[in-house]
Amino acid sequence: MKQYKLVAGPTTSQILAKEGNNTDAVKNFESIISQQAQNGWAYHSMEPITTSKTTGCISKTTTVSTFYMLIFEKD
User: Fold this and answer.
1) Alpha helix segments (H runs only) across 9-58
2) Within 13 Å of residue 60, how many CA atoms lie on the same side as its CB?
3) What are the phi and psi torsion angles at 36 (to 5°)?
4) Which residues, other chains included, contact 20 with Cβ-Cβ below 8 Å and sequence gap of 6+?
5) Residue 37 near residue 7, CB atoms below 8 Å
6) What is the per-residue pLDDT across 56-71, written as a single tens digit (0 to 9) for each?
7) b/e per residue, 1-21, with b = 16+ CB within 10 A?
8) Contact, 63 vs 43, CB < 8 A?
9) How far apart are CA 11 and CA 15, in angstroms?
10) What does the DSSP 8-state code read for residue 17?
11) Which side of the chain, N or C, has fewer Cβ within a 10 Å radius?
12) Mean pLDDT score of the chain
């Protein structure tokens, strides 16, 4: 039976920290995947997860964040 493990990837704001530099974003994901592979986990897929947080009493502000959940598997 396969086992699955979910690992949160970098947030959108972390990925966009250096505007126009795709290399940093790729290296972030590569690092996570490599680290999990060393522990016997094989990369399966990635899914975006969107969360929201509302703050304030009178003038409510909702902040929406997107991050990526990396899914790994092993037998």
Assistant:
1) 12-15, 22-38
2) 5
3) -70, -35
4) none
5) no
6) 888 889 988 888 899 9
7) eeeeeebebbebeebeeeeee
8) no
9) 6
10) T
11) N
12) 85
**How far, in Å, CA of 61 to CA of 15, rounded?**
23
Q: What are the strands of the beta sheet with 3-11, ordered from one edge?
A: 3-11, 61-74, 42-55
Q: How many residues appear in the chain?
A: 75
- Strand segments (E) across the chain: 3-11, 42-55, 61-74
Q: Amino acid letter at 41?
A: W
Report the chain's C-alpha Rg in angstroms. Answer: 16
pLDDT of residue 45: 96
Give the count of alpha carbons within 13 A of 51, CB side only: 8
